[in-house]
Amino acid sequence: MGYYDETEITREHKKPRRSFKPVLSSIISGVVGGALVLGVTTFTNDQQPSVTETNQAVETAAQNESSTSTANTQALSTGSNSIADIVDSLSPAIVGITNLQTQKTGDIFQNSTGESVESGTGSGVIFKKEGDAGYIITNNHVIEGAQSIEVTLYSGDKVEAELVGTDALTDIAVLKINAEHVEVVAEMGDSSELRTGEDVIAIGNPLGEEFTRTVTQGIISGVDRTIDVTTSEGNWALDVLQTDAAINPGNSGGPLINMSGQVIGINSLKITESGVEGLGFAIPSNDVLPIAEELMNNGKIQRPFLGVGLVEMSEIPQYYLQEQMNLPDDVKEGVVVGTVSPNSPADEAGLQQQDVIVSMNDQAITNASDLRKFLYTETEIGDEVDVTLYRAGKKVTVKIKLTTSEATNA
């Protein structure tokens, strides 16, 4: 899946796969840097964030947390009020987000100058006020690549925002503005209490500021959904809430709200395949808040680091797997090690190029997304994991102690 439309940062549709050449090393050199940053990097032919194999377009959004109120700040908790009451109370906490990037002007005969131009738009929600700062949750894809970020307030005023931190995998970003611009702080709800069929509303800026703070109504269509997305940091299985509330380009980063006026999700994805209607998705508030808090504390998300670049088995011709790598005929799933970062946990444990990882701690690994999900949700920095792999046709288990990328690069 991927982002779409001209008003937001977009993800490309999946491009046709190129054939995998027998010389494995020829496709490896381009991703060592990514492996150093993320810990695992999927080798694909798309360098930009792209859609998954369904060729469905997707739009993404984000949500927030319980907030601290000051004398001049209203902490929103409406109880069971009408939709109009909720909208009136919450709207001042919802903002527009504009991604500004520098565009050079001039030609080879003139001095080129940089001019900030709009590269994408989205929505956001103010979820905390602390000291002299107000904090906004939005989507990573809304602000990715921005040289500067502009926030449009409820009053229509535009102010510059500072990027506190961002996480491409979960598509969450936190921005900071001066607290004097904060009138209302949205209250975060408990997304684990949601039930299928529960009424919800979405507020955001579909198609940009022309339709600012558009309100749509729907229900929770499903509470346990997982959507495969391809991000700038690799493939990820994103846990989401499904809703039929209308979500359109520009809603990214805006809130999905329950009938108590609480933010229970960040509007994130919409399937726009021909013939499909009413399939929108939001990141649950209980997933958003821990990410937002860590971004506020550290500016980034620290995850266990393995230190490998990966090649999907599906990208490798069967004859090469069997004849050149001696992979047994009955091994149909796994992920191939393409690169090993120097001094990384994988390097220290002796992992090698063309090793085929099939399980970690006896949990089957069928592809790069499985490995990443296991690494980031089932382990912690400092853990030791048993990695089972095939090397030159032989089954081997090695123990690897996970660290951080900073420890490896120190």
UniProtKB/TrEMBL annotation:
Bilayer-crossing regions: 23-43
SMART domains: PDZ
Domain called PDZ: residue spans: 290-369
Domain of life: Bacteria
Official protein name in the record: Trypsin-like peptidase domain-containing protein
Any single Pfam family the record assigns to this protein: PDZ_2
Keywords, alphabetical: Hydrolase, Membrane, Protease, Serine protease, Transmembrane, Transmembrane helix
Family classification: Belongs to the peptidase S1C family.
